[in-house]
Amino acid sequence: MSVPPDDSRLEHALSRVRRGDVAAFEYVVQRFEQPLRAWLASQAMPGVDVDEVAQRAFVAAFARLNEYEPGTNFSAWLFTIARYQLRTETTRLRRVADYHTRYAPDLLQRELERRADQPPEVVLARLDHLRECLKSLGSHLRQFITWRYEEEISLEEMASRSGRSVAAVKKQLFLVRKKLHECICQREAAAEGGV
Amino acid sequence: MNDRFEQLWTDYLEGELGEAELAELRQLIANDPRLAEAAADSYQLHRLLGIAACDDPAASERFVQATMACLPADSNQFTGAVMRRLNTSTASRTRRWTRWLTVSVAAVALGIVSLTLVLRDGGEPAGHQPVAQPATTNAKASARLVAASHARFFGELAPPLESILETRRDYVLTEGLVELEFPSGATVIIESPAVFRVISDMSLALDTGRCSVYAPEGAEGFRVETPVTRVVDRGTRFTVSVAETNETEVQVIEGVADVYRAATPAAQEASSNLDKLPPDVRLTERNAYRITAFEDVALAPVQFTPAAYRRSLPDRIIRYDATTAAKGGIQELKSVTVQRGGREIQYPVEQLIPVELTWFKSADAVDRSGHLLGGETLPENLAELLSDNLLTTGVINPGGSKEPLTSDPVLREDADRPGTPGFAVRFRRPVVNRPGPDVILMEVQTFSNPLDGDAFHVSPLKFAPGRKSHTIRRYDLTMNSPEALRLASFSLYRYSQPIASLEELHTATHVRANAGPRFHLLAVGIDLSDLGFAEGEQVEGLFFQDAEDDAHRVDPVFIAGFPEP
Fold first, then answer.
1. To bridge B331 with a disulfide, which of B311, B325, B344, B502 should be the other Cys (CB 3.0-4.6 Å)?
2. How close does chain A come to B87, measured CA to CA in Å?
3. Residue B109: pLDDT band by 50, 70, 90 thresholds?
4. Residue B486 to residue A54, Cβ atoms within 8 A
5. Are residues B434 and B341 in contact, defined by beta-carbon separation less than 8 angstroms?
6. Inter-chain contact B110–A107, Cβ cutoff 8 Å?
7. How does pLDDT run across B491-502, given as a tens digit for each residue?
């Protein structure tokens, strides 16, 4: 469990930014970069550069800080800005003529849009569950996640390292993801049950 | 779970799905709504895994620093001046001109501008909404940003080309120029520093700065509003300049323009009765007037200066187009759009004149970033890395010099004459010097590098009277340009020794390392006239050196000449 964020420090940093201390905004970015990127990652359609949208959201928040009312919910305000930025980028992508053939089945897109109002807290809780679930994975399964998401090596290299076929590696990745999904669902259900 | 779905979905996440399989996947999902849910669950998990895998403090720090580098920081002086002007002008304007300004300054030292302005025309409030939406487009407006040159906006990124600007929203242009096109066909070039708003399809407000208006047939009645005037076009070309003191100068280059003083009833009603009211002054071709607004609004003729009118933006690289890699980011160049001699031309990559790398020498020290960009393997002939269409291959971090060359570079070194640090290219066929950019150089850049691009010198291979080196410190497409696209992933090849020749690039020991994911592709056009070549002269090759103005060296991935237009 992470330590609850210190809002007084955040408000202090925002106050310094308003007085002209640009460097004070660094604390704001540090504080929110991971939640914001995680939330955007779970909401963004394929092809959207999440880091870029996150950066635009921070820059827009910085430029419009006068519109934020001190002492209210900065996080909600920032995520609202990010939602607009994401919507703009999504609209832009949709207008790319061959978007669907390059990136996304439209039905996936529709399902993601249906989930667009998932609150950031739900997504962040899911990220915490995922971290715990990763710890519970056996090392041989965890290895595939490390190769795929940390080292980003090709399927062929994974096949070579594991001594399996590419098809077997794909199957393994599918099963690991499925297992992780089930683990997250269990943890969410347990949390809802108050355990 | 459907086995076929499982297989296709995994291929989809790995970026290995062809068009036919994508259609098949779509059909499967369409036939079973549970699969859509499963796909979305899996997709969201896949994205969160990407985030969880990057639980690396160094990666977070890089993101934080890159974001901090994007924040506006250098516009205090300009914006402060704008704010002072608006503040001091408010009192007098509310008395003389029913236009009320409410200015809110959120971060004074930062100079963040946020203006809340209420326009009251003929007693009817026409609300100027405070900037509330982060989006840069608004479907209600239809003035488009059609061109930009080195444009920077205060507190926000420049809108992409062809985007529609929001109405009644202040845009603070701190650097460069932009061109807007209105539905009537009227075009306006705005020069920084400027604060402007699109008011309607037929009008623009200019609070400070200069604009050049062209209103062709059909766009008569287009108007520019300044704090003290309304300039109404009657089919013409004219410029409007607004100083910080509100002093406004109007110059008519062609045709006729009517000027209404903002204080007069005529001006207040001008927007609804444009054709009925007599102007305070009608300007014809080669007429120029200055309108001042101290105690009273006064008009006085001034010297006509046609040079103030700007017919087009400077020649430059406008954009490029490239294929997209399966995992995102651009990969292979398809075309380049450039303005040469005032004319916009799109060249498919096949029409560009390729180069061959004929010389390379690094600085004396080992460069930890390496000297080659490429994929998992390198081609046999490294001399073609700058001319293949792949934007993820290149020859980077050449040697350089603070001072540009004034004599021929040494490309055959011996004991007495060391080779010149830098690199030389030879065009496959000569490039003919024509107006505007004749050569394009593209380099990879990330947010921790200079945002305007890495400075470099470009020199003739053979010096002759009149020929000279030229230094480029700012690219046409910079990290601030929406047109500078993000690059697909690539590898860096690092050497354990300085590189003294092209041969050593091939033979010296090197190791491959994956580069970070945040690189963009910048571009700049090189006008051979800047090197002293005469119009129509043929150029066979060029020499490039890093300008050694900082710790960052130029990283070219593509160089080519433009054919004759």
1. B325
2. 17
3. very low
4. no
5. yes
6. no
7. 899 998 999 998
Question: B156 at the A interface (CB within 8 A)?
Answer: yes
- Give the predicted TM-score (pTM) of the model: 0.57
Q: Among partner residues A59, A102, A177, which is closest to B70 by beta-carbon distance?
A: A59
CA dihedral B81, B87, B93, B95 (to 10 degrees): -160
Q: Hey, are the CB atoms on A42 and B104 less than 8 Å from each other?
A: no
- Per-block mean pLDDT, blocks of 10 residues, chain A (195 long): 58 86 88 90 83 88 84 88 82 59 66 77 88 88 87 82 88 90 89 56
Angstrom distance (rounded) from CA A138 to CA A81: 40
* Minimum CA–CA partner of A155 in chain B: B14
Instruction: Return the domain boundaries, chain B.
Output: 3-53, 77-308, 352-556
**Closest Cα to residue B396, out of B415, B368, B376?**
B368
CA B147 to CA B156: how far, in whole Å? 17
pLDDT per position as a tens digit, B273-316: 555 567 888 888 888 988 876 556 677 888 888 888 998 899 99
> What is the distance in angstroms between the Cα of A194 and the nearest Cα belonging to chain B?
23
Query: Please, are residues B216 and B234 in contact by the beta-carbon 8 Å criterion?
Result: no
Please indicate whether, in this complex, the C-beta atoms of A63 and B137 are within 8 angstroms of each other.
no
Contacts of B39 in chain A (CB under 8 A): 105, 107-108, 111
Q: Specify the CATH architecture of the domain A1-116.
A: Orthogonal Bundle (1.10)
What CATH number is given for A119-195 in this structure? Answer: 1.10.10.10
Closest CA to A51 of B353, B59, B167, B235: B59
CATH fold, domain B77-308, is Jelly Rolls (2.60.120)
Q: State mean pLDDT over B15-28.
A: 80
Report ipTM for this prediction: 0.82
Nearest-neighbour CA in chain A from B522: distance (Å) = 16
- Sequence-ordered list of residues with C-beta below 8 angstroms from that of B210, at least 6 positions apart, any chain: B190, B191, B194, B239, B240, B241, B242, B308
According to the model, what pLDDT value does residue A3 have?
38
The confidence score (pLDDT) of residue B87 equals 37
Handedness of CA A38, A43, A45, A48 (dihedral sign): negative
Q: Which residue among B37, B63, B112 places its CB closest to the CB of A51?
A: B63
Spatial distance between the Cα atoms of A18 and A5, rounded to a whole number of angstroms: 21
Domain boundaries, chain A: 1-116, 119-195
d(CA B66, CA B70) in angstroms, rounded, equals 7
A184 interaction partners in chain B (CB closer than 8 Å)? 45
Q: Which of A40, A107, A115, A151 is the best mutation test for B, with the most CBs of B within 10 A?
A: A107
Choose between B397 and B266: higher pLDDT: B397
Q: Is pLDDT above 60 for B121?
A: no
Provide the CB-side half-sphere exposure for B468 (13 A, CA).
7
> In this complex, which of B39, B49, B73 lies closest to A145 when CB atoms are compared?
B49
Strand (E) or helix (H) holding B234: strand B229-242
Q: Which residue is closest to B30 within chain A, CA to CA?
A: A107
- Note whether B164 and B144 are within 8 A (CB): yes
Q: Cβ contact (<8 Å) for B39 and A108?
A: yes
